[in-house]
Amino acid sequence: MSGGSNFERGEWNLLLAGEAGQGLQVVEALLSEAFRQEGYCVFSGQEFMSRIRGGSNSTLLRIGSGPVRAWSDRTDLAIVFDGKALSRLEKRLQAETLILGDGLQKAGRGRILDVPLRRLAQEAGGALFVNSVGAGILWGIFGGRPEVLDNAVRASFSGKEAALVEKNLAAAGSGLEAGRKLKDSGRVSLALAGPAAVGEGLHLSGTEAIALGAMAGGCNFVFSYPMSPATGIVTFLARHGHDSGILVEQAEDEIGAANMVLGAWYAGARGMAATSGGGFALMSETISLSAMTETPMVVVLAQRPGPATGLPTRTEQGDLQLALGAGHGEFPRVLLAPGNPEQGFALARESFDLADSCQVPVILLADQYLLDSHFDLIAPLRTEAPPQAAIVETTAGYRRYLLTPSGISPRGVPGWGEGLIGVDSDEHDESGHITEDLELRIKMVDKRLRKFGSLAEKAIPAEWLGPEGASHLAVCWGSTLEIVREALACLGRQDLAALHFSQVFPLPEASRQQLERAKCPILVEGNATGQFGVLLTQHWGVRWRHRLLKYNGLPFSVEEVASGLRRILQGEGA
User: Which residue segments constitute the domains of the chain, with CATH numbers given?
Assistant: First the structure.
């Protein structure tokens, strides 16, 4: 792109940067809609400060002729609505990066091109419309059709006042003309190779996918207290849940929310809470209560950096140990960790069936990166038969905690049948009465732990990525899936593969041999201590040759994973 000119290829990375309140999400939504209408693939991810206004935020928009589904550090073109963003983003700018902005000072890297964002916004109605101007300029540079941009503006502002829609149309239109002039002058002209014709498919964030999965899983009660980055799941269900018969309630705090979820399951409903690390810590006692009363429970734990408030709008895989140890005493639980929206939907749905059938707490580990990123789905969201509640109509003499070989007792609910539903947080006998019988205590602990057998049968195997029999194996979990997958594709090595875990506890024994066969296991994890690596060492005796860890609040990029793996392979003489 240096020297100005026409350049066509199958993918472009656009960086949108500015202050909170300048409408970066509007530009993201407009361009995502427009490019998708033309049949192109789109991925977008956000990184932002914990401020309502001000600060310095950015959005990555990847446009491709084929699938693009991961965070990248490469920047082909940046549009900057606030000049202060340049110094903060310098590491993401390359020498060939073209930077568009209004009166920008010389950047350390990249080539600056002045565009009249503020003037065109004022002409359209005020500074508020600078985002639509910027979207229009970028669309014009790519030579996009005006009617497609108009449709995208109308879709993005549907439900707004007609006058506001018209002003945004005017702003986008003036930006489009400015972008076309830049293109026609030969100063810049970017083009994409032929589209993949995927524009008809779904385009979802991780937040939306998990919320839809909860709907498909039969969730009908949601109790939560707002805490980013989990709040989006709750607001999505509050906005759309009435179509599926879901009641959403904001509790006074996370303790109340967790106990309300437990109460919903006790009454025969399917309840869920969504929170982040600090809120989940407050729910720990209820997790333990779920185990003792053998009442199902589903919690989405949306990870962000800690301790305490940490970086509340950033990402990290730092709460695995918290989820593993939450709740006092010894009892089974399930930890699931989706790597993309398809898995987010499927695992959210599966969480309810697992909790119901095995009467255990199920924790879905997501994080800010996955929740706030938008992906084109490459597989349809499959809904199986409607969920069936694993409850029974009780008879006279019903015993809630009947000792069984599987450890799973028939679960009744109050009001359905003749039996008495007795539950208690103390140790109890088969009927639910408090007991100090120490021999019975042993039997009840063993009964609850026997559920691990049923959970093992239902465990989800890890996904193998790359050549079979590769000697070097990158091991990852949760949201790093698509990043590692693309990094492997970039390297194209026959001696390198990856193993991705979407169930992190109990570990799927079916995947143990795959990991043990690897000559050189490499841990790729978004925290400082390699928490999943420690878990694999404790349970399977894995000895890690190398670790790629990241914990500055940003997700891994494809480039840094590829670079790190290449460096390891070179060091191994491979």
Answer: 6-192 (3.40.920.10), 203-376 (3.40.50.970), 459-571 (3.40.50.11610)
